[in-house]
Amino acid sequence: MTIEEWVTYAKELGFAEAAPVDPAALKPNAEVRAMCAADKCHAYGKNWTCPPECGSLEECAARISANKAMAQKRRTARAKNSSK
Question: 13 and 74 in contact (C-beta within 8 Å)?
Answer without folding.
Answer: no
